[in-house]
């Protein structure tokens, strides 16, 4: 049996709906023994279809101090739970989870990343788009599987390493 940890940043709207359905399926699946969720304590929905003891909230805002705190929290949680799979939802959660794995072993943990909209496709300057694309490309090297939730995401993920 496998343990899976889902990690999100601000889980609401479409990401919430997607994650809620995935959690409901995995909770009832014979493939997973335990399903866990970690998400920010602010700007996130609080009701999910898994055991409340398996839901962890971390303090978070989009600034360097809180990003580092979130990285440390998630790293400790991974060490405590020892999941087989860490499924990451959204860009900032992708940063929080994957950057630490450049500095320590992933052991046998599989990292699954679902961007829920590529950051380099946002309406912003070309410089920022290139920077976001470079960051995603680098982080893809610490990712075992990238899940695109639309054909649009899939087509635009072509430059990333497989």
UniProtKB/TrEMBL annotation:
It comes from the Bacteria. Keywords: Transferase. GO terms for molecular function: transferase activity. Residues 13-152 form the Glycosyltransferase subfamily 4-like N-terminal domain. Coiled coil: none annotated. This is Glycosyl transferase 4-like. It comes from Heyndrickxia coagulans DSM 1 = ATCC 7050. The lineage of its organism: Bacteria, Bacillati, Bacillota, Bacilli, Bacillales.
């Amino acid at each position: 049996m496998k343990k899976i940890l889902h990690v999100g940043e601000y889980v609401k709207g479409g990401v919430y709906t997607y994650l809620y359905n995935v959690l409901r399926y995995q909770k009832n699946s014979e493939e997973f023994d335990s399903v866990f969720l970690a998400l920010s304590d602010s700007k996130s929905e609080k009701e999910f279809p898994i055991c409340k003891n398996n839901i962890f909230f971390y303090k978070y805002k989009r600034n360097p101090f809180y990003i580092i705190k979130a990285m440390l929290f998630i790293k400790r949680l991974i060490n405590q739970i020892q999941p087989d799979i860490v499924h990451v939802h959204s860009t900032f959660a992708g940063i929080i989870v994957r950057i630490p794995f450049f500095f320590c072993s992933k052991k046998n943990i599989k990292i699954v990343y679902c961007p829920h909209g590529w950051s380099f496709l946002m309406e912003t300057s070309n410089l920022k788009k290139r920077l976001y694309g470079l960051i995603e490309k680098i982080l893809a090297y610490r990712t075992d599987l990238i899940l695109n939730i639309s054909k649009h995401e899939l087509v635009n993920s072509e430059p990333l390493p497989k």
